């Protein structure tokens, strides 16, 4: 029996006009080239994350789109932490794609037109524990060499705009080698 590899798909899309922790699920979102998610508090060419704005409001916004793999939600539920799509602040929830293993500069083609370039890892913060006690520790781990592993998704910038909906396929375009590992942004 031959097992077909899982196709990477979008399972949920979410947005919030305010700097709330969680984002509401939608039937669709629109990505705007060089800006981010239409109607989202993090939309913009320069940083929108409040602590980053306070440090330097002229920094480029490398966090226009937040993506989390649904497999993380599965893992968290198995640990007794009830977390669903959008609740950790992500705009796009995926399934069948190792987001954390992608190299920096990978382009994710979402649906028919939208393209997000992966810029780095989300750096989990204490707000996670305010949402669900124990969530911060659950999204941090150590690899075999003892290095910190951040599991709370990846961040990206919008290279090409378009609508994204649950069920849309995801096509992965890796950058030229040598690959650069993801780091927090």
TrEMBL record:
**InterPro entries to which the protein is assigned, alphabetical:** MoCF_Sase_C, MOSC_domain, Pyrv_Knase-like_insert_dom_sf
Where in the numbering of this chain does the MOSC domain appear? 24-173
List the protein's name: MOSC domain-containing protein
């Amino acid at each position: 029996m031959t097992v077909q590899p899982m196709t990477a798909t979008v399972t949920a899309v979410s947005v919030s006009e305010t700097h709330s922790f969680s984002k509401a699920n939608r039937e669709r979102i629109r990505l705007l080239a060089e800006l981010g998610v239409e109607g989202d508090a993090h939309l913009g060419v320069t940083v929108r994350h409040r602590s980053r704005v306070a440090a330097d409001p002229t920094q480029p916004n490398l966090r226009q789109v937040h993506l989390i793999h649904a497999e993380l939600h599965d893992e968290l539920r198995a640990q007794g932490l009830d977390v669903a799509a959008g609740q950790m602040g992500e705009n796009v929830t995926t399934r069948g794609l190792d987001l954390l293993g992608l190299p920096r500069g990978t382009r994710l083609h979402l649906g028919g037109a939208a393209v997000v370039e992966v810029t780095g890892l989300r750096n989990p913060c204490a707000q996670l524990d305010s949402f669900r006690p124990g969530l911060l520790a659950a999204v941090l781990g150590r690899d075999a060499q003892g290095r910190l592993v951040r599991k709370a998704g990846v961040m990206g910038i919008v290279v090409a705009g378009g609508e994204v909906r649950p069920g849309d396929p995801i096509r992965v375009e890796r950058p030229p080698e040598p690959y650069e590992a993801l780091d927090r942004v």
